[in-house]
Amino acid sequence: MDFITFLITVAKALAVVAVLMSFCAYAVLAERKVSAWIQGRVGPNRTTLPVIGSIPVIGPILTRLGMFQPMADGLKFLFKEDVTPAHVNRVFYVLAPVLALVPALVTVTVVPFGQYVSAAGEVVPLVLADLDIGILFVLAVSSLGVYGIILAGWASNSKYPFLGGIRGSAQMISYELAMGLSLLPVFMWVNAPGSDAALNLTAVVQGQQGWWLILWQPLSAFIFLVALFAETNRLPFDMPEAETELVGGFHTEYSSFKFGLFFVAEYAHIVIGSAVFTVLFLGGWHPFPGVPLQMEGLLGAIVSIGIFTSKVAALVFFFIWVRWTLPRFRYDQVMTLGWKVLLPLAIANLVFYALVIAAYDTLN
Amino acid sequence: MALVIQRKPLSWLEKTYLPQILGGLKITLKHLFAPKVTLQYPEERPVIPENYRGVPTLVKDPNGREKCVSCQLCEFVCPPKAIRIWPGEIPENTETSHVEKAPDDFEIDMLRCIYCGLCQEVCPEEAIFLQDTFSVTGYTRDEFKFRKEKLYELGGTLPDRHYKWDKKKEAARRGNAH
Question: Do B28 and A41 touch (CB under 8 A)?
Fold first, then answer.
């Protein structure tokens, strides 16, 4: 690879990460705003910037929507006092927040977020790395994120973070199984005889030009969504954090920027999870079920990215909406649900679709 | 006797949690679009009820006469001893020289005041009222010692039902001492 291609690759990666991080920042804002609205409040509406905030009509509207709040939040995390308790295991204590965020940023490399159709009709997916083992990579790397939580809980050398870490690991193990099993029917479906889709995520999107997979396989989508909630530690499954029971759970001993990294990592996981769900079940960048996107050139690429991101945004909203609706499950309920309900359900789902697909293939 | 509540076993559908979750989502969605209850405080102010007991203030009557005659009843009744009055004479041949006395200075220490309203209750001249000011701020202890000027500024003018001293003056003019 020569130097120019290397530079272009780096620039693309940086652009994607920048977009992802700003998506996370505004997901935090969305969380604060939506929670406020659901509770009859108005949410952050005072933070403003000197020049942009004083533009006649737009400035006040942006201020009232809290559009400048993420910058203030970020600055706050940067400049707060960083307390490192004396009783922690320093190496792992510092490593944990990094380990929480990095897997989320790595998974974004294989998630396709748009398509570019050249004049010749050639379809190029917009993705950093179009791996054939796409979904395997996502599952493998995103589950590394739990190491951040376990390490944080253990390195903090304190009771509540430790409980949070234990809960985190137990929860991840139980829901990872159901998650993986719920995805198998999807890839059996996509890998019809004669297709070379393998585990490629772009192929899954292209396979949804007709009806979306959520319509063909609602149960798979449902199990995957529930598992996704558990994997991203969102309410009703926020066992590792559980601020009403465990103070702050795994990040109790963290402050300042290290806490900020955990905070951003949580939202990065939500955004990535939503993106994967969109790719697998919501037809990626195809606007409606049964209506594939057929625009060519640069405009088509921008439209595809727009459709994809708005679907992701809608899913992020759903995550937030659910969080401010449901109470937390008890720990034993989470375990029961994972092992006794979701896992058998996922296996039954797998067997059912295996039989359906086998019957369909033999009859044709 | 202990009351034992018979709980109905959950139906299969209820055990899946799903109907309740959907119901909850519906409720929160409704609240998402409902009007907000937030009061944008420094710009918007709460409606203060008539009988609110805010900061004690001194008031003037509609003719602009200060009503306090420095009888010092409020000073004596004040439980935390927040009030201090320096009584003074009213000079002869002024418009208000028929009034008994007036305070030279009047001080309420707002760090001591407990907003009990006893001063308002005890005042025979209806000169001191706990009105609608609810926010007292300052940087030094001295700023919380409200002097006469500040108290009249906060109090303003309230309607008077009696015009006691004007009636007395009129009665004296007609030769009737009381």
Answer: no
